[in-house]
Backbone:
């Protein structure tokens, strides 16, 4: 039995959302063009958008649904879903890379800044690992890595509530 796949319109909408939050987006001023507080707000919205997209995919299709698609019926669909997962993981890694420039880390003490930067590097590393798992079609690796990403995000937002704000991406 073949599981229902996300419609072309939905996939197109996700692609448009991902593209609209990228650094080349014509939506308005970008981080390099504005003050540090405004830069943080712009990046925070971009990061929230990527995290909502990842969360949506986790709930709706991957890696659970990908694992259940029959190989002979859905090789192309599986490949496309893994490619999309790798793309979103790459977007997350890119967003994590910008966090130090977008967040007002200067207000942190030295020890807190080190912890914050360690968590940023951990998110970058986990995002890259998620991309690697998606590239080799490793559903179990994706699940484990998504759990670690979730834990890293939760940890950062708990430790740096005033800086990071509440978690709002729903997964």
Residues:
């Amino acid at each position: 039995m073949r599981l229902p796949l996300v419609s072309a319109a939905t996939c197109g909408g996700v692609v448009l959302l991902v593209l609209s939050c990228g650094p080349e987006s014509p939506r308005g001023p970008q981080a390099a063009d504005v003050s540090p507080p405004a830069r943080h707000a712009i990046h925070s919205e971009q990061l929230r958008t990527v995290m909502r997209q990842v969360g949506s995919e986790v709930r709706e299709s991957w890696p659970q649904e990908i694992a259940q698609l029959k190989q002979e019926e859905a090789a192309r669909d599986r490949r496309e879903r893994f490619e999309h997962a790798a793309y979103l993981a790459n977007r997350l890694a890119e967003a994590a890379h910008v966090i130090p420039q977008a967040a007002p880390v200067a207000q942190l003490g030295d020890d807190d800044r080190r912890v914050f930067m360690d968590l940023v590097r951990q998110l970058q590393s986990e995002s890259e690992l998620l991309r690697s798992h998606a590239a080799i079609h490793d559903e179990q690796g994706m699940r484990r890595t998504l759990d670690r990403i979730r834990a890293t995000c939760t940890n950062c937002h708990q430790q740096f509530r005033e800086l990071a704000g509440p978690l709002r991406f729903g997964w």
